[in-house]
């Protein structure tokens, strides 16, 4: 019985995600689902990305957190529209909730060019739930260790890009960039990989350029 329910839940989410995808297509909005462990640098990456792109594009954020609105406060200065979701303990976002925001509550989310979703910090549940995004982006910080793609493969397997964050700390931690690249390529040959640090700015330009290319492809 439990398996049956899980399957139904997954099917319903996939249908809602497909609806979201059609809707975003209609408006030409590029939706980017940002996933990764607690503290891997999701909000810091968004701060830097929005800071760099907000003068040229209208950017929106759906910020997922269990209880607080602290991350949304950090991103507010650069977002044309920002919505905070508090899941009150829920470990992931689902397509149904995103669909509700897109269709009724916040139409301003669709009067933008890129919509970033910061998912709840964890490498397991968010990977199971398609939100209808164009790009699934998973962060792996060098402080987490090399084994994470092998231990939590789904989050990396289906990502259009993996960002290896906090590379300024490489000299202080036991993390092999070379090994991480090999493991990621084995799991996901097509996915892009961007090592970067928001502290030094190294690699951030490549990531932003890739986003701009993806937006141009969607809108052509
Ligand atoms: N040294 C260094 N620290 C970083 C970098 N990026 C983020 N941090 C730090 O890592 C910590 C967590 O960063 P956040 O951006 O809040 O992480 P998060 O993934 O949004 O965390 P949750 O929303 O709680 O899941 C903060 O202290 C950041 O300053 C980086 O490139 N280098
Ligand atoms: Mg955050």
Describe this structure in words.
Helices cover 43% and strands 18% of the residues. The chain has 220 residues and is an alpha/beta fold. It has a single domain, classed as Rossmann fold (3-Layer(aba) Sandwich). A seven-stranded parallel sheet has the order 3-2-4-1-5-6-7, with helices on both faces. The longest helix is centred in the first third of the chain and has 26 residues, at 2-27. It is globular. The chain binds guanosine-5'-triphosphate and magnesium ion. Residues 36, 38-44, 71, 121, 165-166, 168-169, 197-199 line the site of guanosine-5'-triphosphate. The site of guanosine-5'-triphosphate has 17 residues, from helix 2.
Layout of helices and strands:
Elements: H1 2-27, E1 30-35, H2 42-53, E2 59-65, H3 70-75, E3 81-86, H4 95-105, E4 114-118, H5 125-128, E5 135-141, H6 148-151, H7 153-157, E6 161-165, H8 177-187, E7 192-195, H9 204-219
Parallel strand pairs: 1-4, 1-5, 2-3, 2-4, 5-6, 6-7
Helix pairs in contact: 1-4
Strand order of the largest sheet: 3-2-4-1-5-6-7
The mean pLDDT is 95
Q: How much helix is in the residues?
A: 40-55%
- The CATH topology: Rossmann fold
The backbone outline, from C-alpha atoms, is globular
Which small compounds were modeled alongside the protein?
guanosine-5'-triphosphate, magnesium ion
Helix and strand content put the structural class at: alpha/beta
Main β sheet profile: 7 strands, parallel
- Beta-strand segment tally: 7
User: What is the CA-CA span between the terminal residues?
Assistant: 46 Å
**CATH superfamily assignment?**
P-loop containing nucleotide triphosphate hydrolases
Radius of gyration: 17 Å
As residue ranges, the low-confidence spans are: none
Instruction: Indicate the CATH class.
Output: Alpha Beta
CATH architecture: 3-Layer(aba) Sandwich
Give the SSE string.
HEHEHEHEHEHHEHEH
H/I helix tally:
9
Query: What is the number of independent domains?
Result: 1
β-strand percent reads 15-25%
